[in-house]
Amino acid sequence: MSVEEMRWDLSQLVESTDPDSIKRKLESMVAEAGDVREKYYGEIGGLDAEALLELLELNDSMTLKYGGVTLYCRLLYSANALDDIAKQLNDASRTAVMKRDQTLAFVDIDMGKLLDSKPSLVEDPILAEYRHYLEKILRSMPYMLSDTEEQLILAKDKNGVYAWQQLQNDWLSTRTYEIEVDGEVKTMPYGEILGLYQSPDRDLRMRANQIVYEELGKDEIVWASAVRSICADHLQVCEIRGYPSQMTQSLIANDIDQETVDSLMNTIVKNRGLYQRYLRLKARLMDLEKLANYDIVAPLPQAPEMKYTWRESRDEVVSAYSEFDRQLGGWAEEMFEKRHIDGEVRKGKRSGAFCSSWLAGKSAYMLQSFNGIVGNVRTQAHELGHAVHAYLGSRAQKPSNYRIGSCIAECGSYFGELLLNERLLNKATTKEERQAFLATLLDGFGMSAFQVSARVFFEQSMYDAIGEGRFLDGETVAGLWTAARDMIYGDAVEWLEVMKWEWTMKVHYYMPNRRFYNYPYVFAKLFVFALYRLYKEQGEAFVPKLKSLLAAGSSKSPWELGKELGFDIRTEEFWEKGMRQAEAFIDMLEETL
Ligand SMILES: [Zn+2]
């Protein structure tokens, strides 16, 4: 196998990879946005359905025309941040995108005003293909402020919440921690010591957690100041905008309603005993009385070491998709064949993994650092799920209808992970392998569905506390966090005292406009488990249903997508279906004992 095979070919994204030609293309993108502004500024309020359609189609054609070049610049940089040309082009692209967005910012605002004054346009048959896109714009209109006020909000965030985010990020990434590993004292930055949480050495895991959270707790004054200000800021913005609840902004962004979130969270609370049952089972598998917090996602001690070559991984993942559906398998294969995947481990390459849609190419590009461990195979299945989502969505939808919210964005990827899991389980020859696959799957489920839910309740409890006039100092916030956490975990886990500072490191709490970022993860995990349950019940008949769900992109709300599958996601009954699938996996794991 050549190394070439593990490197992506980005040249397909552009007519020429010559940096000057790339820059010229970026310049014409900005110029074209200027032309649109020239033509439409001050005019949108008077558009009829046909003229509005023309504007929407123009917008989409620009997305298709320039999506490749901006993606090229971004991917080039993520593949090698040390390369001068990559740095230059990435910077040029970001600047150009910013200019374009500023130039065109009036379009959405004026379109919102137009729809607000003529709501019948949303229903106009001429605009049928854009209907849900327009509905979403209309939904946020009642909470929009005047142009000047909107500008002020942006300015306030830039030097307010965003400054807290920057501080949290800088602070966390510049801390170092001293820890003894194999008899040697090492100094590690935060990003590195995190890796020890997954170590097979239990004592090392315990010490890594203890050291990190003890240090974070020492800065409680900083973290509490930040969180307190950000929450208070949000409450104020809710009041100014007239949001009925602290969750409204997030509900609009995720295209769902309060009833759905309430049913979802109620289902979590009702089933926490199920999760606790898994945690006790895992303790037995690890030969422990009870799990400590640093065991929750730790590997099982008896997990066999499994290694995969690039080719073997490709075979497993492509087969997993093909066994479900030949077309999806074919697309997964095409991602390898056309070299849209970067798997090589290199210096200067971005860590982690991601998949970006390439709408004009009706395809995608994905990046990971492939070391041959089973986790990498799982990541490959996950990211290729995003890829097949893009293959389906870009064929069926206009770009405006492929802006998928967080609740649905992980459908293809989580489902792909389950398909791979099924394949690996079927092939497993030993009890230990089966246990390892199932435990990894359930660890992931537990984190996304239950641990993240604790964060939802925690966040709500902070707003409630402020509402009751309580002052959020470090100990108070820590108390709210442990209360939410213990409500989910019960007595199934023993926590280090310093884990009360766990909330300090979660970046989302410090980001502008990311209040209640959390429940979409819970939604996505449970939604996909429910879909998988349906697949197990219906077999092949389910395949086209999943494909049409993915192909719908953002042209329908998650509620409508559920309805087409015969469900009402506003009911707990639907979410229970996902829980029954989780229970089935827990039963399978228990049977291995
Ligand atoms: Zn993903």
Could you characterize the architecture of this molecule?
The structure is a single chain. This protein has 593 residues and is mainly alpha-helical. 65% of the residues lie in helices and 5% in strands. It is built from 24 helices and seven strands. It has helices spanning 19-40, 49-79, 84-117, 120-123, 131-140, 147-159, 161-174, 190-193, 202-218, 220-241, 248-253, 258-270, 272-285, 310-324, 326-337, 374-396, 406-409, 411-427, 431-467, 474-489, 519-538, 543-551, 558-564, 572-591; strands spanning 176-181, 184-189, 291-292, 341-342, 354-358, 363-367, 493-494. The strands form three sheets. Strands 4-6-5 form a three-stranded mixed sheet, sandwiched between helices. Helix 16 crosses helix 22. The longest helix is centred in the last third of the chain and has 37 residues, at 431-467. The chain starts with 18 loop residues before the first helix and ends with a helix. The structure holds zinc ion. Zinc ion binds at residues 382, 386, 410, 413. The site of zinc ion has 4 residues, from helix 16.
Q: What characteristics describe this protein?
A:
mainly alpha; two-stranded antiparallel sheet; 7 strands; binds zinc ion
Q: What is the fold's blueprint, element by element?
A:
Blueprint (H helix, E strand, L loop, with lengths): L18 H22 L8 H31 L4 H34 L2 H4 L7 H10 L6 H13 L1 H14 L1 E6 L2 E6 H4 L8 H17 L1 H22 L6 H6 L4 H13 L1 H14 L5 E2 L17 H15 L1 H12 L3 E2 L11 E5 L4 E5 L6 H23 L9 H4 L1 H17 L3 H37 L6 H16 L3 E2 L24 H20 L4 H9 L6 H7 L7 H20 L2
Helix pairs in contact: 1-2, 1-3, 2-3, 3-5, 6-7, 12-24, 13-19, 13-24, 14-15, 14-16, 14-18, 15-16, 16-18, 16-22, 18-19, 18-21, 19-20, 19-21, 19-24, 21-24
Bound molecules: zinc ion.
